[in-house]
Specification:
Blueprint lengths: L13 E10 L2 E11 L3 E6 L6 H8 L7 E6 L14 E4 L11 H11 L4 H10 L15 H13 L5 E5 L7 H16 L3 E5 L3 H7 L2 E6 L2 E7 H6 L3 E6 L3 H6 L6 E3 L2 E4 L4 H10 L6 E6 L2 H9 L12
Parallel strand pairs: 3-7, 3-8, 5-6, 6-7
Antiparallel strand pairs: 1-2, 1-4, 8-9, 10-12, 10-13, 11-12
């Protein structure tokens, strides 16, 4: 990271109060109230059509709320002069003029925000695009465009950073780099707000989660607390799967010789198996993954579901 530039960072919150956005008959964001705080990575989750992108656009003043408010550091983003000094954002990596070079793109943004040219070369180096700085953006891969978008977000050394699907198009090394970068930025006291569909990355990156469904707030809590929503289960592997399943008070999920049991602990299951002479090859307690907790919470808030499932 570009260490040493963060010493003057002022802790800045994003405050949403009864934030609502309607498009004719559709309510994209519905009475959303939450605070995104500095010093941690906040994951922003929700099914397709939940209103995440609309929310981010309202934070940046690109969409006007139908009602309610959203502020950055106590003021609407539009009220901040030279916005890149206050908020850096990557919303759509493809939304860049393909006929410009990466360096000229960043220099134009720097000039409009009174940022020195040396900063352009710094962020290009930070995202690994120094060797491609003179290349036309239209020739960039999706991963390279993502890196350029991240460079744009970092350009003004802002206290607040917003990222919408930043992992798209990145190779494993790039994903690891972005994950580490988010943590470092948060550790510097910045507010890092990340929207992503990749649950595994949110599980490895976020400290806190804001979850919405059909525009409404479903959860605003730590990653650990959210994961507990999915409950616990016990993985049981036995050659007598069918017989053991019949002994349980609730039908378990069965896959060959493996059962996933909820409602009973590992000790209880072990005693039950011993009492009835059922051979066990494995008995493993497990906590729900972030994805499992997310799917349970949003099952009835999915706008678009495959196979007619709602």
């Amino acid at each position: 990271m570009l260490l040493g530039r963060a010493s003057g960072i002022v802790p800045t919150v994003i405050e949403m109060t009864a934030l609502t956005k309607r498009y004719r008959e559709t309510t994209a964001v519905d009475d959303l109230t939450c605070t995104v705080r500095p010093g941690r990575v906040t994951g922003f989750l929700g099914p397709n059509g939940a209103g995440k992108s609309t929310t981010l656009r309202m934070v940046l003043g690109l969409a006007t709320p139908s009602s309610g408010t959203v502020t950055v550091g106590g003021r609407p983003f539009r009220a901040h002069a030279r916005g890149l000094h206050h908020v850096g954002a990557l919303l759509d990596a493809a939304d860049v003029h393909g006929g410009r070079s990466a360096r000229s793109h960043l220099r134009a943004l720097a000039a409009s925000n009174r940022i020195g040219r040396t900063r352009v070369d710094e962020v290009l180096a930070e995202v690994g695009l120094t060797s491609a700085a003179g290349r036309m953006i239209g020739r960039f891969s999706l991963g390279m465009r993502q890196r350029l978008g991240i460079a744009t977000a970092l350009l003004g050394d802002p206290p607040v950073l917003l990222f919408d699907e930043p992992f798209n198009g990145l190779d494993p090394e790039g994903v690891q780099w972005v994950r580490t970068m988010f943590r470092t930025l948060a550790a510097e006291g910045r507010t890092v707000f990340v929207s992503s569909h990749l649950m595994s990355e949110m599980e490895n990156t976020a400290d806190h989660l804001v979850v919405i469904g059909r525009g409404r707030l479903l959860a605003d809590e730590s990653l650990a607390d959210f994961a507990r929503r999915g409950g616990t289960s016990v993985l049981v592997r036995t050659p007598d799967a069918a017989r053991f399943a019949a002994l349980l008070p609730e039908p378990p999920a069965i896959d060959g010789d493996t059962l996933t049991v909820r409602g009973l602990g590992a000790d209880e299951l072990g005693e039950l198996a011993f009492t009835h002479g059922v051979r066990l090859h494995e008995l493993t307690p497990r906590h729900a993954s972030l994805e499992e907790s997310f799917m349970r919470l949003t099952a009835d808030r999915t706008e678009f579901a495959a196979g007619g499932a709602r």
